[in-house]
Design a protein that fits this description.
This protein has 485 residues and is an all-alpha fold. The chain is built from 21 helices and two strands. A two-stranded antiparallel sheet has the order 1-2.
């Protein structure tokens, strides 16, 4: 295990975190918020010292780097980012309990959007900015950001490949360019461009500048932290529609946007995962609209709220215009299923991913056909290309572990004595990085009802869900730290 190269990379990650706290500090200075200024100054100082110490100790690191180091480095980086990223909330006393502060920032970085705050509007603007910006930073990934801005080095392409694949969501990471570092740059350019476009459309709708930036950060990262107690419910229908569209856009595989830029429109239209994603969205909106039409003044209004809710949940954003917890059970069941499915691989959304769902369905269909005709040899194809059997086996393994973790987490959280729907939807929501759950943790409620133990379980779930399980599992595996490779 190359500890020095991991330590050096961690020092760079922490430096990036400290730099990104500066805008929140400046907002606090502008507002003359003494507690927030103190919180950010102390946090930046602590993080800078930790970063400097690691850089000094690991400055002679060798570039020898393997997949195991990549997975471990990603897991440690996200844990360190979270532990230190919670300091501004805790030091400023805006969130007095450290576990609550950790829950809030992990929810931010993992783009979950689950909150322990009972009244978000009481929080200072500097803290609200840091809370929302954590979504944007975690959406595409802070390690991907570091790879995108780091100087090019032809010798480290394998190093960047391991890191990018460990942090990026989806069963595999497609190379948009020959070098993985260039792929990271392309992803972030697209990410920044879409975020800027989102801000422009929100400002056209007369949304305040601060609100527009925070909302765009939550939409881009598919996180869902709002700056208002009613999330997006108090804004105009135009702003809500803008959020609906951009949530769906950020749930699409970013490779599709790159193909559009290259004018490869046929490849985009033939993308099987994209068609599954669109199909699920359209079908869910139609079914929920019919089911809730009697609860609103017109079918158009019902369609508006159904489209927003479906877009918010399938992309695992978590914004809300109304409390869907009050909708009929049929609609809530669809919402619960969409939480687990999630968006496309290669997007900022969470969940199982439509790509995995598609491969699992095709694999099941193949198994049925092979049962009827055992001698038949058949490969699974996706977008006209044969899917590697190792990938199929990996997706099946991922799904098994996915179900197992949700079951164990549900069992542990149920110790609190909350209702089954509250506990189960809380686990599903946090593990799939959605945010709001059902029953006692619906869009109009929060996660403060859970015990410290349950919050820790949900924190682990959020991290495991965002990092696609395996980096966290490998990090806590005894075999990872054994001397033998």
């Amino acid at each position: 295990m190359n500890y020095r190269v991991m330590g050096k990379f961690l020092s760079q990650i922490l430096f990036v975190e400290a730099v990104f706290m500066v805008p929140a500090l400046l907002i606090s200075v502008y507002d003359a918020d003494v507690n927030s200024i103190f919180g950010f100054l102390c946090s930046i100082g602590i993080i800078s010292i930790a970063s400097g110490a690691l850089h000094f100790l690991c400055k002679k690191a060798r570039k020898r780097f393997f997949a195991k180091e990549g997975l471990v480095c990603v897991g440690i980086s996200w844990i360190a980012l979270s532990l230190l990223g919670a300091l501004p909330f805790f030091i400023s006393r805006e969130i007095p309990a450290y576990i609550d502060a950790l829950f809030e920032i992990v929810s931010g970085f993992t783009t979950t959007g689950a909150s322990i705050l009972t009244n978000v509007e009481e929080m200072s603007r500097g803290m609200l900015y840091w809370r929302s910006f954590s979504h944007w930073l975690g959406g595409m990934g802070v390690l991907v950001f570091l790879l995108a801005i780091a100087p090019a080095d032809g010798r480290t392409n394998r190093f960047t490949m391991h890191l990018l694949r460990a942090e990026s969501p989806g069963p595999n990471v497609g190379k948009l360019a020959p070098r993985m570092r260039d792929t990271a740059k392309i992803l972030y350019i697209l990410y920044i461009a879409l975020t800027a476009l989102n801000i422009i459309f929100l400002l056209i709708g007369n949304m305040p500048l601060f609100d527009a930036f925070c909302t765009a950060f939550g939409t881009a990262g598919t996180g869902g932290f709002g700056v208002k107690a009613d999330s997006i419910g108090g804004y105009s229908p135009y702003i809500q529609n803008v959020c609906t569209v951009f949530m769906l856009l950020f749930g699409v595989n970013f490779s599709c946007y790159y193909l559009i830029i290259l004018k490869k429109f046929k490849s985009v239209f033939k993308d099987g995962e994209l068609r599954v994603y669109i199909g699920l969205v359209v079908a869910s909106i139609a079914l929920i609209t019919v089911n809730i039409s009697g609860m609103f003044g017109s079918v158009r209004e019902a369609l508006h709220h159904a489209a927003f809710a479906v877009s918010s949940i399938i992309t695992t954003t978590g914004f809300a215009t109304v409390d869907f917890n009050k909708w009929p059970n049929f609609s809530k069941t669809i919402i619960l299923l969409l939480m687990m499915v999630g968006a496309c691989a290669g997007s900022t959304g969470g969940g199982l991913k439509c790509g995995r769902l598609l491969i699992l369905i095709k694999s099941a269909k193949r198994s049925i056909r092979q049962t009827m005709n055992p001698n038949k040899v058949e490969v699974i194809r996706n977008n006209g290309t044969a899917v590697d059997e190792k990938m199929v086996a990996g997706i099946k393994s991922y799904f098994i572990v996915y179900i197992f973790i949700m079951f164990i987490s549900f069992l542990l959280v149920s110790i609190d004595g909350q209702s089954i729907l509250t506990s189960f939807s809380g686990v599903v929501s946090c593990f799939n990085n959605v945010g709001p759950g059902l029953d006692a943790i619906g869009p109009a409620d929060n996660y403060s009802i859970f015990s410290i133990f349950s919050k820790i379980v949900l924190i682990i779930d959020m991290l495991a869900g965002r990092l696609e399980i395996f980096p966290i599992m490998i990090l806590f595996s005894g075999a990872t730290w054994s001397i033998k490779r």
